[in-house]
Amino acid sequence: MKPLDSSDSEEDLNPETHKKSLEKLKNIDPDFYNFLEENDENLLNFDLDSEDDVSDKNDDEESVHVPGPLTGDSDESDFEEEDSKPTKGKITLKLVKQWQAELQSDGKIKHTTLTTVIKAFNAAMLRATSEDGTSQGEFKVEGSSIFNAVIQMCVLYLPTALKKYLGIEQSGKDPRNCKHFIKIKGPLVAYLNDLLKLLGGVTSENILTVLLKHLHQMCIYVACFGRISKQSLKKLIIFWSTGEETVRVLAFLCILRITRNQQAALLDRVLKAMYMTYVKNCKFVSPSTWPGINFMRRSLVEMFTLDLNVSYQHVFLYIRQLAIHLRNAIVVQKVENRQAVYNWQFINSLHLWADLLGATSNKLQLQPLIYPLVMIITNTIKLVPTHQYYPLRFHCIDILMNLSKDTNTFIPILPFIVEVLTSYDFNKKHKKVSMKPIDFSCILRLAKSQLTENGFKDATIERLYALLLEYTANESHNIAFPDISLLAIMQLKQFLKTCTVANYTKKLRQLLEKIEENAKFIDSERSKISFSLKDDKMIKAWESSIKTKGTPLSIFFDNWNKVNRIQKRKKITKNDEIAGELPMIKRPKINEQKITKAENKGPLVLFPSDSEDDKTQFGEEEETSSPIKVKKIKKKRQTKKVKSNNKKKTDDHEMNIPDKGDIVQDLSVSDW
């Protein structure tokens, strides 16, 4: 390469020549010149008075051009170096770790630490809700890793730090009575508002469960503020009615905790809102929605039992509304009024109040409502007593039986069950063959086409058998059982005389025998008593002793119920489909056509011995007289050996199935 002369270097470093070259550049390429002018002005501005010091500047390191700072944000802003100087208000991972250590410290929690952490959470929420993804405030959250770190810090460590700051770690006193509550009140309101905003914007089930667990820890602070309590309850009731299983449970636990802390102010509003939500979400019933409806009903019963004096006003009002709908349907006799009664919302409401009255049977506040509820249910059955509404009848009978059992109240249910045996002709030939059995659990009304199928009669007999057996088993220890069961015995005998279907008569004859056996048992035990029938205490003691001993009908029902539950679980889980192919025993194929002509020429044995002892005893004689029979005996022994070997293989296969433990763990709300 050609060495650089000193004259050339001086000319190149002369500011005037450099300025002229830049002017030429401005004329030749104005876009590039504008780019330099906007991004780095150091290239364009030269000091003209420094001509004499050009040679000194060549040796000076500061004369080397240093590019200006870039204004665009880097994609790797989440992974900053810890040594780099943070900009004012910008949150870094190092800063988050520092705050986390202060929240976990064993000493006193500083007020400034809590307020700073709450402000950081607010900055993260502003970033999440803003359109451009930036937060404007005292702190700035940039990048998803910083956002996640701030949220995780608050969710994991803020509740314990707040308890430590207020001094309520062990004592369960009201936070409003604490000394430092006034100082933290403002930041706490801001934090709870931001937490509710975050709950409203989350769609992932896993993140929602985490935030609901955190809210459950913060419920003691939520109950301190009336406006925040109402806002949180409104969102929690939506989660309770429409969320997934875990979300529903956590939402209900939060509702229960907030309501208990402000029971006098919130219970009225919560009961009304939860009941209206329950009615709205039980309009459609299917096997997939049944678990959610059952959970809502049971949890709503739990809420009504918090204060029965307050609940009585609500229950009385809602039962009265059901009675008004039923009265309009009976009086007006129009399709619209009938549909207001014969729907799932009406039936599920009856189910709810029956469960509530059964759960509070040991308390006197709600017991006067048993009679009006029973009258509503029985008149609902009588409204349209046709074959199409047999499923609805069975649902109402089921509600009445549970109510009678839970409240220990005698309800005349038996006529509504045995009425089906006389109101429908089961000897009628069906026009269609149903591919699947009809399930009455999720329907209230049958279509006309279903009434002509054989599945309708089969399902009706199955349901009648189950209801009769359950009702008589529940009353089997009653001292008046022979008198109560008389109607059922008469109707069953009449049905067995007229019915010609063998499957139906066989099933109901077995039930009739068990009922008669139990009636004779009670009659024999009743003949031994010496007390008066007016003595209620002695009668109750006698019935409880008979119940503990066990009656023939109750023992039979318990065994049947175990088998029935297993069959129901198989239907729900579809175990038969999941099981797949079971191990098969491979039997060897015996080809009888391979017998040779020489073997067929032997004498025919007309009466061969079936016992193996005879074969072993006379084995030598048979070998000389009939070679064909000896070969047949050998083949039989070989096939028996193959069968025994295959059986051993299948037994070993069944014994070596690994026993997997229960992988489902119980949900702990306090454990994060």
TrEMBL record:
Signal peptide: none annotated. It holds the Pfam family Noc2. GO terms for cellular component: Noc1p-Noc2p complex; Noc2p-Noc3p complex; nucleolus; nucleoplasm. It comes from the Eukaryota. One of its GO terms (biological process) is negative regulation of transcription by RNA polymerase II. It is found in: Nucleus. One of its GO terms (molecular function) is histone binding. Residues 629-647 have a biased composition (Basic residues). Keywords: Nucleus. Residues 15-24, 648-663 have a biased composition (Basic and acidic residues). Residues 1-24, 47-87, 601-672 are annotated as: Disordered. Residues 48-62, 73-83 have a biased composition (Acidic residues). Belongs to the NOC2 family. This is Nucleolar complex protein 2 homolog. It comes from Galleria mellonella (Greater wax moth).
